[in-house]
Amino acid sequence: MIAFISLATIGCSKDDEPMAKVNITAQNTDFDGDVTGQGGSLNKSYTWNNPLATVDYNMDITAASNGSFQLILQDADGAVVLDRTIVAGQGEDSRSGVSQAGVPGEWTVKIVLNNFKGDGSFSISPGN
Length: 128
Fold this sequence. Notes:
Elements (H helix, E strand, L loop, with lengths): L19 E8 L3 E20 L4 E20 L5 E8 L6 E5 L6 E22 L2
Antiparallel strand pairs: 1-2, 2-6, 3-4, 3-5, 3-6
């Protein structure tokens, strides 16, 4: 007698796994980028040269159904001059304005996505 055994493997494809990413589109005088996510989280830092003491910023999310998008800026001395978060489904889906004054030079731009599902964008430029 011959016995047949059938095995089935069930798993998640890579497309179903949580993912989050940042795509920087400009990093000269202005610093711009896009964020996307499928429920993933990330924390990335970039260095940007700001010749002035403040920055003008804009950040928004579109089609986000979950999670948060946080933009943190630190001046050349490491002081936090901006910390803004947009939470999907809670209040406004965009933020803009001017940072607090800081020390010109090499600034740190931090992008934090937590359980983010959707897309968005951000831009910063030397302030007035």
